[in-house]
Design a protein that fits this description.
Largest sheet: 7 strands, mixed
Oligomer: single chain
CATH class: Alpha Beta
Order of helices and strands: EHEEHEHEEHEHEHEHE
Number of helices: 7
CATH architecture: 3-Layer(aba) Sandwich
Number of strands: 10
Radius of gyration: 16 Å
Distance between the termini: 24 Å
CATH topology: Rossmann fold
Strand content: 25-35%
Helix content: 25-40%
Shape: globular
């Protein structure tokens, strides 16, 4: 599917979602994600970067999509997003940066996590066009936190990218800010607010996986 000026989500390569999901493990259940949303599916992304070769073609496709936005730096949230950002930056010969996750004391609200840019990167990214990337985006907690942090230091995020976009919640955040989202693949994904979660209503035990950043 090609990208047009009116598109907010560019799909670089179909049907990559199934191929990507073969590289990670998933569980069904009732999960509270870092964003505060509830979901019935949890993906364990830890094995994803165990071998760069297994995701090389996904990274290549993402690099191809990002090149169109004339960026000078790639930034990703720790952990997986930073690994991906480093691979993309290396492939493009660009600056690399990362953000670190900080959880607020009040974790019952939506998007309680913030992401902090280490001091070493702050001056270097001021006024710089940046692509922000993560391995997977669903609610987009890590990417939106990184976006807000970069803007607070006068960096210029111009595109958000992911190997896999699940659902539309995260992409909608960037669409509202006229930031295009590029993705190697996408898939459907159910996210619920706690007050409207059908699994809560059914009494299914909730597992807190707030270490997740999707």
């Amino acid at each position: 599917m090609g990208q047009s000026n009116n598109e907010r989500l560019a799909i670089v390569r179909e049907p990559s979602a199934a191929a990507f999901l073969e590289l990670v493990s998933g569980r069904s259940g009732h999960f509270r994600l870092e964003s505060g949303h509830h979901s019935a599916l949890w993906l364990d992304l830890d094995p994803l970067f165990s071998s760069a070769r297994q995701i090389d073609h996904f990274v290549t496709d993402l690099v191809t999509a990002i090149r169109a936005y004339d960026v000078a730096a790639i930034c990703g949230p720790l952990v997986g997003g930073a690994f991906l950002a480093q691979l993309v930056a290396q492939a493009m010969g660009l600056e690399f940066a990362f953000t670190e996750r900080v959880i607020a004391s009040q974790e019952s609200s939506l998007y309680p996590a913030s992401y902090r840019l280490p001091a070493a990167f702050r001056g270097r990214l001021r006024g710089v066009r940046v692509a922000i990337v993560d391995d997977v985006m669903s609610a987009g907690s890590a990417l939106r936190g990184t976006y807000d942090e970069l803007r607070s230091y006068d960096a210029v995020p111009v595109v958000a990218g992911a190997l896999l976009v699940l659902g539309s919640t995260g992409a909608d955040f960037f669409a509202e800010r006229d930031i295009p989202v590029v993705a190697v693949a996408r898939d459907k994904y159910d996210l619920w607010l706690p007050v409207s979660c059908p699994l809560c209503a059914a009494g299914v035990t909730l597992e807190d996986v707030t270490a997740a950043a999707v």
